[in-house]
Amino acid sequence: MSETTHPAEVPETELPLSAVLADICEHREDTISVEELTQRFGGRAIGALLFVFGLACMLPLPPGATTIFGFPLVLLAPQLIIGASAPWLPDGVKHRTISTAHLKEGLPRAIRWLKKIEAVSKPRFTILFGAVGERLIGLVILALALVLILPIPGGNILPAMAVSALAFALIQRDGLIALIGYALAVTSASVLALAAHIIVRMFMHAWTVVTAA
């Protein structure tokens, strides 16, 4: 008689990312630590953590939250650049906890979208995930993470979307999603550059008016 494998017996590393996140949403404690998240994601922990923290930066959280969630991105992205196979985080970050109430507010909607994307996602354009490709993704995510830790009102959405798209593409080995992530990164850089240009012009105009008075 052949043995039947039940879903509960399937290792979490083989489950879709949406299933692992759904399980995290069912966490019974008030908080969940970054270390526990790392353990749940198994061998794809670097990409999954990048995705989760990128996603967290898009949630409607209190001011300053993107600085908190952006900091782990700054630590993880360089590890992708050097080709690390497992994430390293200092004890202070590993023991940091995330409110499960906040996760339950934002994750269910994201999981619904994620399931739809997983249904059509597949490995393609895998040349984008070679040794050079993964390092490029890490470099772009690092640049975006440095933006996310800055207190820029409303400036977190596009960079966070780009981080999440690139991290998800890395997990799925889906080059099409990676290209979308790169497009979001370029759009984010363009918007921020335009905003900075406008602010500088306004400052220079105000300075001219003040000095001329």
Structure description:
With 213 residues, the protein is mainly alpha-helical. The chain has helices at 17-25, 34-41, 45-56, 65-81, 91-94, 100-120, 131-148, 157-172, 175-212; strands at 31-33, 97-99. The protein has a two-stranded antiparallel sheet. The longest helix has 38 residues, at 175-212. Residues 1-13 have low confidence and may be disordered.
Assembly form of the protein: single chain
What form results from the Cα inertia axes? globular
Instruction: Return residue spans where pLDDT drops below 50 for at least 5 consecutive residues.
Output: 1-13
In spatial order, strands of the major sheet run 1-2
Mean pLDDT: 80
Strand content: under 5%
Please describe the biggest sheet, giving its number of strands, its sense, and whether it closes into a barrel.
Answer: 2 strands, antiparallel
Order of helices and strands: HEHHHHEHHHH
Helix/strand class: mainly alpha
Helix content: 55-70%
Radius of gyration (CA) equals: 19 Å
Termini separation comes to 93 Å
The total beta strand count reads 2
| Tally of helical runs | 9
Concise summary:
The protein is mainly α and 213 residues long. The chain has helices spanning 17-25, 34-41, 45-56, 65-81, 91-94, 100-120, 131-148, 157-172, 175-212, and strands at residues 31-33, 97-99. It is 67% helix and 3% strand.
Write the layout of secondary structure elements.
Blueprint: H1 17-25, E1 31-33, H2 34-41, H3 45-56, H4 65-81, H5 91-94, E2 97-99, H6 100-120, H7 131-148, H8 157-172, H9 175-212
Antiparallel strand pairs: 1-2
